[in-house]
Design brief:
alpha+beta, Topoisomerase I, Chain A, domain 4, Gyrase A, domain 2, 2 domains, two-stranded antiparallel ribbon, 6 strands, 16% strand, Ribosome_recyc_fac_dom, cytoplasm, Ribosome-recycling factor, Ribosome_recyc_fac, protein biosynthesis
Length: 186
Amino acid sequence: MSTAEIQKSIEARMSKSLETLKSNLAKIRTGRAHTGILDHVQVEYYGSPVPISQVANVTLLDARTINVQVWEKNLGGTVEKAIRDSDLGLNPIGMGDSIRVPMPALTEERRRDLNKVVKSEGEDAKIAVRNLRRDANDSFKKLVKDKTISEDDERRAQDIVQKLTDRCVTEIDKLVAQKEAEIMTV
C-alpha cells in the first residue's frame, strides 16, 4: 500500500467520523422540533423492530411539534408507546391515525446536562480522529521498515496526515460550539 492510498483511506475514515458526530449531535434534543429526533426509535412491526420512518410519515407541524402519520391504523398505539418508552423524554398524544409529539421546553439544568453530552460526543470524535492518525503513522513506519519508502517520504506523509487531523479537530470544535449555542438558546 502506498502513502497516497493510506492518506486517502484515512481521509475517508476521518470524514466518516465527522458524519457520525453530526448524526449523534442531531439526536440530542434542543427546544426545537426536528424529525431526526425520532430516527432511532424502534417500533415492533409484525414481530421485528423497525424504525418509525418505515411505518409512518414523520413531519413537523410547527417549531415545537412533530406529527407522526401512521400508515396502518392498528399501529397507532404501538408507535405512541415506542415514542413514550424511548429515552427522549417525549409525551406523544394520539389523535386517531396521527400522533402529535410536542417538544417540552428545556430547563437551565437540562441544558447544562445536554452541553456535557455534546462535549463528550465531540471528545469521542476527536479521539477517533487521533486514533486514525496514529494508525496512519504506524503504517508509514512499517513502509519505512520494509524499505518501500524513504524517511523523507514518511515525514511528508505524516505532515499531510497531521494537517488533515488538525482540520478535522477544528471542524469537530466548530460543530460542538454550534450545538452548544443551539442548546443554550432559549
